[in-house]
Specification:
Number of helices: 4
Strand order of the largest sheet: 6-7-8
Helix content: 10-25%
Largest sheet: 3 strands, antiparallel
Radius of gyration: 16 Å
Number of domains: 1
Shape: globular
Distance between the termini: 14 Å
Strand content: 15-25%
Structural class: alpha+beta
Amino acid sequence: MDDIRLHGVHIDDENNRVLAIAQSCVALMPYHLPGGAVDWEHCTLRQWLNDSFYRALPHTIRSRVLEVENRNAANTRHGTHGGGPTVDRVFLLSIDEVERYFPAPAPFDGEPALSDLKRLHAFWRAGFQDRLLGWWWLRSPGQDPRFAATVSSTDEPTVCYEGHDVYGQMEGAEEEPDMLGAPFGKPFACGVRPAL
């Protein structure tokens, strides 16, 4: 983990804190093993991030990481319960945080500034630097408790409110390969972009 690069996404001057996210995915893994209904508080990915991943961080980073209380809101489109608040050192962004810190360019009469589009597109795609397509997990629930919301790094990057099955499979496309080459209906891993 010595080569992890972080991108500051929010500065809280009042409390002297910075919210940072990994510039690229640090792992490809399921949200929860063995699958099934789960929320952020109880998923195996949260356990891994706050234990094995945290302990593997360089001391220079670990010594600056603060515990934060995360409010785990319901999915705004599907109403899926997000679970209780959690105290985390390392976590995934929520749907709300992605929309707040990385809003899509607002529609207006003129053309958007190229630099704004490049910055936004770079954020969405950064999880898979050498791949054309990919997904990365959010801590928010998906369409029901068996799904977690994701971000698509496709040519039209977007938050996927329906999400992916927490075990890593997508519903309804059992035989088609996913963008990482694994067949749907079999476990495949979404990217993990830790925030701290």
